[in-house]
Specification:
Radius of gyration of chain A: 21 Å
CATH topology of the largest domain in chain A: Glucose Oxidase, domain 1
Oligomer: homotetramer
CATH superfamily of the largest domain in chain A: Putative cyclase
Structural class of chain A: alpha/beta
Strand order of the largest sheet of chain A: 3-19-17-11-13-15-16-7-18
Strand content of chain A: 15-25%
Largest interface: A-B, 99 and 99 residues
Distance between the termini of chain A: 32 Å
CATH class of the largest domain in chain A: Alpha Beta
Chain lengths: 323, 323, 323, 323
């Protein structure tokens, strides 16, 4: 068994196989917590950084704001922000202890946030979903989940993500601004988009898929329900045949909704994390790079090292590459 | 009046002058919300990106975790994280509506965070502090503060921060692991460190100051109270004579504590934001770049675009530059 | 001027009159923070407690739960609850420091809540709404609002609410399970209900109005929007002619929605708090006392003494009175 | 087996016995979720309510405020409150959609709270602690715990608590304002206090124990660590010999700290919930009833019906009883 995508098809040993699904043993060993992100090495970072073409810096992150759409189907909290210090409030409450006279002169403001980790542009880590209570590399709640957070696979384990990114504009392929609700992105879509764009997919790529859904942002009803997304076939094609490191999307979920299998719950997520050891990035703003036809780029994204978290908000940046 | 640091001394017009302090009118015009970060342009980004020496990628961000030290002197909330979905819990509560059988097979985890914005490694924006109720470019609570968040100067306005960074190792200058509690970093410290390191300070730099305080992380009592930090003289030297864009530190606060003036409340913050229009980065991990003597680098930091917020958590990355 | 309702019409001196509205000076003096709740005295409590007829104890509070309907029109947070300690999590994370072996034997669970104060059955205090920036007895944000919470009029100032309660079943009066959306409860409704029920309204009463809206609980769309409620005429009748201490409702808002005056924002609330110094109780479950025709009772409700808060969750209990 | 305390010693059948501890099967049947609170019946309520002596109404609840002491040994969140609407903020942000002109006239304030359930005066429910992963009546996380909250034993199941309360002033017995740190309240203390006071302990009582700790409130260091409290012997005496329904204290924990058995984690809590099916009330303010020598009273406390929660904040009221 090899951890290298060159050794296709990428098939990892199973820790659990049941009912058509598989939890893999990491080829990077029993202590591995980040799966395919092990492909990020000083050498791979250097190779990318040496080819930056600074002619453009594209911001792929969206804004966080009060009332922003987020995945709400399982009753997760909305994005919240509030003031903890205000200029006149600091005079009146003296929370700092400095005294009202001091705060008349020195005006103080501060704020706090409360958010579901999977809100806005974010990375999903491998502890986000699994099968039959088992997650990537054999993690289970019984031995690895604390009261508040996982002890395994958290966002804190991740290096700065510096890798080759490739945009596949599936909406563009179909000649639409936005794929229709529930459109299933298939292996054929992926291959056709790469061919039409003239884009080579390589092992260890971060492949980002444009559904056009960001055209509807920030309208909740237009953006959130029944998003177009990847089907299982497409996910397996990218992870096993291409050897992608990570897959991104501009929709709220990489999984198409509703799912192809009505008995499944975000099956592409589960496959990606537990079987393939591959991460997901969601809610990307791909409009500008699609308009500019920037199909190959350095993807720079630095997850907050939130200990044990099932992901992290990120603000990814794309920088074109010299060939 | 010019907005260019070349036109030193950098003195901006006053909107308010009183009791020895000044709120400046932005030289970038009445709509400006980001002050010196206007110096980040496609050209400045390109110049930096073209000089990356990928021989190293240094992570300057620290971990976020339950129980981590944070500034608590004004009763701000601690970092909190908790699960919103657990594998067996999802079977038992069916919050997703998919049904218990589905969740027996598809195991779901998710989590939420709650944090004061100024926790962990973070950027401070110009709406964080001001004088006499007035902030940079004339913002006031009366006209610009909502119930929950500012309408001006928020982290959402910031471009990806890609700029020349310079490390001044003040602890190293003094031959100590960590500067003593309450050490005031003076203009002389700054000049001596630059001279000893052989480092040129240039206009528009992000200057990061190593106090060595991260040696004590994450011990609350060792790290938080009475931190060594910059005095007002040093801040004025860097902002007005050098023309720095932004100043960073490895301590919890750029301001030395206690302050030189016992009647003041974080006066360096107030000066930086309201007078100089310059941002601050705090709680940086500078240990590795100091050990490796990486004194000049590309500073890459991508603030989350949190609308109206007084700052943003960031995970900055330093990449050495070819000369 | 007298603070006694016997001296009808109850008209308090104005601190501000403008554009048809009035902020009153409290007849209980400049330090008063609780308005008509000053009518609760040891004597008034004793009088009520001596007449309890223990033949029934009626629970008027509703459940707090994940997903419960709450007022969302101004983007307030939903009710949230989450675990901070779980049995196996405590073994795995050892947050208590007791050690995993100890937590194998001693299984620990705990949880936290996050909620908008005006969620579920709750009391509204006088600092909740005002006119032109001024609140009951002259409170203003400028001098009385801290960064986090009011310094005046908070729920912490309130005595245990022990008073005569009177149910007016307006839905019953109209022979319906639930008043239609947007039904305005008028003085005529109030008088007719009292007459039909044979219920005497007395000064210092807590008058609770049944709209029947709880029949639709907990359906968000059925319960929250366009609730039937009190019009300004009815509020003035109860506060000025009857001399009620407090008015309650089973709907999400005492104010009818939409309001009679489309240019107003919860005008009954504003009138009650700033002009009349009278509190409001909302989201009461009145179904059982209505079915049992318990029209007069001791109302027992003990607000949590949350310092500075604009209200408090309560679980009121009604106990029939001997005549 | 009988559920009546008259049938002393109160010994319930075991569902699990191991290592010296026992989880009981509820004598109220497999669906029971509230243990001894089943003793609250319409008859028991009527009996108490018919004997109220309204000569006094004593407030046993403490204030909730920013910075208040709470149990922090296992890293639970502090009490937090913040504004969600402010008068001028509502003009500037228009979260309600009513428009700035409307909010110039109609001034709006609101606030939200965030708290660990076991903060301030509160009731502990039977799902708070157990043994070896099993709780009262056989509940386990495996089958009964959701992602966010228990499905069994929550505060929502509780009736309004209306019962005979008895104060045992243990500090008074020892002639001190406050028992020394770590004082273990023994069966002898309990018997001696009852005898000295001339107070009869009866089955189904709520017994509240005064340690005097509230003398130090709200000083964190004085109030929280090493609290005097009940030892296991005293808990067994009250639950098994007296047949108490519930035990309260003015300290942060009913368990003495440190515990008699250094290998245990709040063993009195575990015994009370899992073995005896008896609830706990903590952080009571008993100073006034102790000073007034009100040793017997009606205890009125109405827990918020928070679905699944391990307890609820309450504001209990004591009303003296006619004999």
């Amino acid at each position: 068994m090899s951890a290298e995508p060159e050794d296709l098809q990428l098939q990892y040993e199973a820790l659990l196989e049941r009912d058509g699904v598989k939890v893999s043993k990491s080829p990077w060993g029993p202590d591995d917590e980040i799966g395919r992100m092990n492909w990020i090495t000083p050498e791979s970072q250097r190779e990318i950084l040496s080819r930056l073409d600074g002619s453009g810096v594209f911001d792929l992150g969206i804004e966080y704001f009060f009332g922003m759409p987020s995945w709400a189907a399982a009753h997760d909290p909305k994005f919240e922000i509030w003031m903890t210090h205000t200029p006149q409030g600091s005079v009146n409450d003296n929370l700092s202890g400095a005294g009202p006279d001091v705060h008349e002169k020195y005006s103080y403001c501060g704020d706090s946030i409360h958010m579901y980790i999977h809100t806005g542009t974010h990375l999903d880590t491998l502890n986000h979903l699994g099968y039959f209570g088992m997650f990537w590399n054999g993690w289970t709640a019984e031995k690895d989940l604390g009261s508040r957070v996982w002890n395994k696979g958290g966002a804190d384990k991740y290096p700065p993500l510096i890798a080759r990114g490739v945009l596949l504009d599936i909406a563009g392929l179909h000649g639409v601004d936005c794929l229709p609700d529930g459109h299933v992105i298939t292996p054929e879509d992926l291959k056709a988009a790469a061919r039409e764009q003239g884009t080579e997919l390589r092992p260890k790529d971060v492949v980002v898929l444009r559904t056009g859904r960001m055209q509807r942002w920030p309208d909740f009803d237009g953006y959130i329900p029944d998003n177009p997304g990847l089907g299982l076939g497409g996910a397996r094609y990218l992870c096993e045949d291409v050897g992608a490191m990570c897959i991104g999307t501009d929709a709220v979920s990489l999984d198409v909704a509703p799912h192809e299998d009505p008995e499944a719950f975000v099956p592409v997520h589960c496959y990606m994390f537990a079987t393939a050891g591959a991460q997901i990035i969601e809610v990307l703003d791909l409009e500008e790079i699609a308009a500019e036809k920037v199909h190959e780029f350095a993807l720079l994204a630095f997850p907050l090292k939130i200990r044990g978290a099932t992901g992290s908000p990120i603000r990814p940046v794309a920088v074109p590459l010299r060939s």
